[in-house]
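Data availability (excerpt). All sequences and predicted token strings are deposited with the supplementary files. A representative entry, Heme chaperone HemW, is shown inline so that the format can be inspected without opening the archive.
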Amino acid sequence: MASALPLGDPAPADGLLPASAAVGAEDRAFGVYIHVPFCRVRCGYCDFNTYTSDELRGARQVDYADHAIAEIRMSRQVLEASALPARRASTVFFGGGTPTLLPADDLVRMLGAVRDEFGFEQGAEVTTEANPDSVGPDDLLRLAAGGFTRVSFGMQSAVPHVLAALDRTHDPARVPLVVGWARDAGLDVSLDLIYGTPGESLVDWRRSLDQALAQEPDHLSAYALIVEDGTKLARQIRRGELAAPSDDLEADMYELADELLAAAGYEWYEVSNWARDASHRSRHNLGYWRGDDWWGVGPGAHSHVGGVRWWNAKHPSAYADRVTAAVSPAVGREVLDAPTRETERVLLLTRIREGIDIASLHTGGRHAVAGLIADGLIDAKAALSGVLTLTRTGRLLADAVVRRLLDESSELSSRT
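Structure token line:
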């Protein structure tokens, strides 16, 4: 089953936000995330809020677009009633699940609702995730005609035994086909890869990277496999049927990816993401890392506006009941205090290429910089210009870098 929702305070039935959410909103970009929670099969490693047909318990895929549109309309009303300034959407991202299990016309209708309620910034980025076996050329043409600009394919691997271990159903030979169809439709292309799957060798991983690069995508993501509690994969590892991922091998795989991608002309802009150039970075995901505002539509979707975070009812039927009754689908929320917001700011900005201004760190964090340079974890030249940017080694140890920045800050604060 999907992971549990976080703990928090009850969300109000009308969804209204506290006055603090509006402070500085005119300086923050606004994005929309639309969660489509349907999958043909549940992948063994996945703990996302997704459902196969036999898990829907009365919810129907054919009704989903109408329910999501109801929440989109509600979202504008809530933001307006909460005294948020009117802002156009700069990005829209359809994730899941497998959004393209829905008809292309349903995705276009949902996108149209965002356009109707908020409008789009000039050059807005509109992305959908897709599995290689969930779209055809006509679907991609329809999406492009309806306003989508970008598609992110879940390639994951080019090696059959790795795909089988992940419970992925597509044939690797289909990836070049769908990339070509997306290109013909005028869509930018991103490919998602996963490394560290049980049984995957460094040779296997190089094969996947080579095959991905042969498609000349505009953007590429490479994520280390995380074994989540409660998943089929976790149970298989616990029973000894599969070996747990090796940290050392995953580090070698990351370094290989960065070397091959850099040699092919791709630049890293976030720890797990590379783009052909700055214009092909995922602006939607950058909004998350930069602490911008976004409204998450759909079952279990999370939203963030001005330091207020909330999340929707998880199951599609519970979500549908709420929006049909014109009640906010949000079931919990938290208003982040200043220390938590600062921790998240350091955590997220440290991960991106632009880094974080050293002068903006607390005193202890600034004192930690010299040691991080000495350990080869941050770029010395960038630090001299006042910016903390991770080296390749630092990217492998990004969480440790953040802990040192924050731990130093906490230690010094406790002395004063």
